[in-house]
Each structure stands twice: as C-alpha cells, then as structure tokens.
Amino acid sequence: MEQSESEQESQAESHVESKSSVESKSSVKSLPGGTAHVKLEIKKHAVTDDYKLSKRVLGLGINGKVLECFNKQTGQKCALKLLYDNPKARQEVEYHWRASGCPHIVHVLDVYENIHNGKRCLLIVMECMEGGELFSRIQERGDQAFTEREASEIMRDIGTAIQYLHSMNIAHRDVKPENLLYTSKDKDTVLKLTDFGFAKETTVNALQTPCYTPYYVAPEVLGPEKYDKSCDMWSLGVITYILLCGFPPFYSNTGQAISPGMKRRIRMGQYGFPNPEWAEVSEEAKQLIRHLLKTDPTERMTVSQFMNHPWINRSMSVPPTPLHTARVLQEDKDHWDEVKEEMTSALATMRVDYDQVKIKDLKTSNNRLLNKRRKKQKQAGASSAAPGCNNQ
C-alpha cells in the first residue's frame, strides 16, 4: 500500500474523531450469481468508540497502512486499514466488502468514515491474519519437506478466491504472494487473499490502466492488449511456478524492479523448467503452468478451467513428491527480501511501449538467481548430483 510519510504516524487513536456531517453511504455485498447479501453501512461515529487502536503497524499495502486494533466488547484482535477518502478508496472498500464473503478472502468486519489528521478517512476493520505471508511460512519449514500435493492444495485455495471475484466480474489485478496471508500459525490455518487497491470491475474498456507488480505482471500489460481477468490467471501461473521450485520464471538482470530485458522475456513467454528443481515435478503441473502463462490472453486458461484441471480439483491424487522449494527459498532468503522491496516500490503506474507481443520458445532462460546458485554450488565442490530436498 503506497502511503504518504504523514500517514506513517502511529497516533491514529488520538487523532481519529467522528464526522457526523457527511451523509452515510451504503452498498450491497453481492454473492456470485447476483444474490444480495448484507448491506455495507459506513459508520460515522469514531472508530475508537468500538475499537482500541494500537500503534503496532501490521503491514503496508498499496493504498494504506494496516494497524493492530482490538474490539472493545469482545477483545478480538483485528486489523485496521486507514485510507484517505477519495473515489479510489471508496472503490477499494466496495470491492473488498463485496468479496469478503469468500472463505479465502480476508473478511471485512466494519467500515468507518472519520477525520484523521484533519482529513476525511475511511477506516476498514478486517480480521487479523496472524499466520504471515505464504512464502514466509514455507521458508520456515526447516527440514520438513514441502510437497507437490501441498502446492496443489494451496493453488486450489487461491483459485477459489479468484473464482469468487471473477464470478462477480471483479479482477483483483495484484495477485501475488505478499497479498496471500494465513489466518494463524496453526497447522489447520486458512490462506486468504487481501489488498484490493488495484481491483476493478471488468466492464468494457475498464481495465487498461497499466498498474501492477512487475514480477507477476501479465504480458498484455506490457503491450496493447486489454488488462482483464486473464491477468489474474497469469499471476496464478507465476505463483504456481514459484511454489514448485522456489524461484520465479522471470527476472530482472539489472536489479531494477522491471528492466527492458525482463519486459521482453515476459512478453515473449521466455521461461523454462530447469533441473534439478523441476526434475521430479509432474508433467500435469507443468502443463497447467503452460496454460496459465500463455502470452495471448485469449488462449490463457480461465478460472473455471483452472479449478476443473485435475492437478487442482483432484489434489489428493497429486503425488506427494518432496520439492526443492523450501530449501531454495531459505538459501535465497536475502534475495527474496530484496525482491519484495522492489515489488512494493514498483507498485505505480508506468509508461509502456506498444511493440507487438510475439510468442517465442526459449530452451534456456537467463535466470539471474538460478545462475548465481549454480555457481555457488560449483564453488562449494558440488561435482556430484545436486543436493536433495530437506525431507528428513
């Protein structure tokens, strides 16, 4: 969430006051199929009447910071997102509210319209996701192997969220690991999608704004094609790829958030399945990725096709093959922190060139992280087979 420096202040409770002069706005939370659900009533009394605000910042997303707060009646720990009130913020609240009925989308509990630091703000109270980010959880597994079957189950959960959104003609437009959070650190935790700062309705000509996160951006954003639901499917392909090996299919070789070379590789569909990380991954999983990462959005798999793919809808039949993912993520932990920072800073509108998108097969990919790790393994005297997965 991009935020001005003044919003980084942690004095929300002392400065938030009620604004009763502005008329209330309500909207309808819609379920797939057009079923009306609960109306959103934006409350005008001070959020501090109902919640005790903490100075602890839980996270930063596209459009605002997230603070810890507690329900005064129940003691429930929640997350409070502060947005300066404007049409874009209203839109974000609307889409998130409508979507939060899905079990794999972070639930919005309350919305307030208050004055903060002299400015009108919207305050979104959400369930607190205490389990952390998707990749962090995998990094922390230690010697416990992460399997292909687990990757399938994770992608089914993410697909459920995207299917829910697409059934309401909403494109999330920023599906990435940092926006996928677990409810708790327990074994039976639930993975949920959050941050609707880039969400848009998929009406005609509605999704042509080139704002995105580079590592998960679809080729049509870098060319003239319309930016629509198929972008979310491209992102699902990138996330599936990372879950199965530990590194993304496209890299910037210059250290920039998105370099000309990386642009070209994304637009031309240049990626591979290098060994040893991909040696034991099923052909079914690779086939799914190929269908998701097609550069032509008209050829790309839809969310319904994704959810009906056997690698997704028959997770228990997917082989529990130990993957290299946890080891790779742990070895490259410092690099991944840098990548996350690059992606956060690059969440802004950019100019794009409009060269025609062409599809080109590439037998070898110039993957900076992969090459660096290969070199390190050779220097360590890894002359025999590559190290196996941490599955002891």
Question: What does this 3D model show about the protein?
Answer:
This protein has 12 helices and 13 strands. It is of the alpha+beta class. The chain has helices at residues 12-15, 87-99, 134-139, 148-167, 229-245, 260-267, 283-292, 303-308, 310-313, 325-331, 333-345, 368-379; strands at residues 17-18, 26-31, 35-41, 51-60, 65-71, 77-84, 108-116, 119-127, 132-133, 170-171, 180-182, 191-193, 200-201. A 6-stranded antiparallel beta sheet has the order 1-7-8-6-5-4. A 3-stranded antiparallel beta sheet has the order 9-11-12. A two-stranded antiparallel ribbon has the order 2-3. α4 packs antiparallel against α5 and α5 runs antiparallel to α7.
Structural class comes to alpha+beta
Main pleated-sheet profile: 6 strands, antiparallel
CATH architecture of the largest domain: Orthogonal Bundle
* Global Rg: 21 Å
Could you report the average pLDDT, rounded to the nearest whole number? Answer: 75
Pfam families: Pkinase
GO molecular function, one term: protein serine/threonine kinase activity
Enzyme class: transferase
Protein name: non-specific serine/threonine protein kinase
List keywords for this structure.
ATP-binding, 392 residues, Phosphorylase Kinase, domain 1, 18% strand, 12 helices, Transferase(Phosphotransferase), domain 1, transferase, 2 domains
